[in-house]
Design brief:
By secondary structure, this protein is of the alpha/beta class. About 45% of the residues lie in helices and about 20% in strands.
Length: about 190
């Protein structure tokens, strides 16, 4: 059986990458989404083991020491990281795995797994980004400002990604993402022949 493709999806906070990944999973059966560990507190409606494994800073540091993370990063004062073992098992089973992670983590994944495909999601414009963050209503204004500052810093690294999707319509972005993965999978299996 063909191995799955490891797909790293990054994007400016509020660009809609969460919505795109969720819809991709609903629409196509051949994807699974990795659940990260984080030291951030759960938002209203988030469940442990579904959006994230919510753990303490100390527990996170223990996972780092024990080599249990494929990658990790600090983002606006919290730790976020991808559990390694689950990803390795899923890849062997032939599923495409989506890692919805920020860019420091994305580059660590590329170092470790060079076949990974890195995709960056952009909002149609920066005003839209701020509007989406405010409308989401899950962060304070101070937190939103920090996330916007971070967004500007992150933009410098966009050229390092394999693909960029401008998310002006979710369904279109989802299909674009799926087509990218399909063609990358074909490329990888041709190379393996
Ligand atoms: P949020 O707090 O909005 O859920 O996530 C903040 C940022 O952390 C987002 O850009 C998200 O993609 C990223 N993130 C989530 N999980 C991980 C992870 O496991 N590793 C890394 N490096 N970033 C993550």
């Amino acid at each position: 059986m063909d191995k799955g493709v490891l797909v790293v999806v990054s994007g400016l906070s509020g660009a809609g990458k969460g919505t795109i990944c969720k819809r991709l999973l609903e629409k196509y059966p051949d994807y699974v989404l990795s659940v990260s560990a984080t030291s951030r507190k759960p938002r209203k409606g988030e469940e442990n083991g579904r959006e994230y494994f919510f753990i303490t800073k100390e527990e996170f540091e223990e996972m780092i020491r024990d080599g249990k993370l494929l990658e990790y990063a600090r983002y606006v004062e919290n730790y976020y990281g991808t559990p390694r073992e689950w990803v390795e098992q899923q890849l062997e089973s032939g599923k495409n795995i989506i890692l919805e992670i920020e860019l420091q983590g994305a580059f660590q994944v590329r170092e470790k797994i060079p076949d990974a495909v890195l995709i960056f999601i952009l909002p149609p414009d920066m005003d839209e980004l701020k509007r989406r963050l405010i409308n989401r209503g899950t962060e304070t204004m101070e937190e939103i400002e920090k996330r916007l500052e971070r967004a500007v810093e992150e933009m410098a690294f966009i050229p390092e990604y394999d693909y960029v999707i401008v998310n002006d319509e979710v369904e279109k972005s989802v299909d674009m993402l799926h087509n990218i993965v399909r063609s990358e999978k074909e490329k990888e299996s041709e190379e393996g022949e």
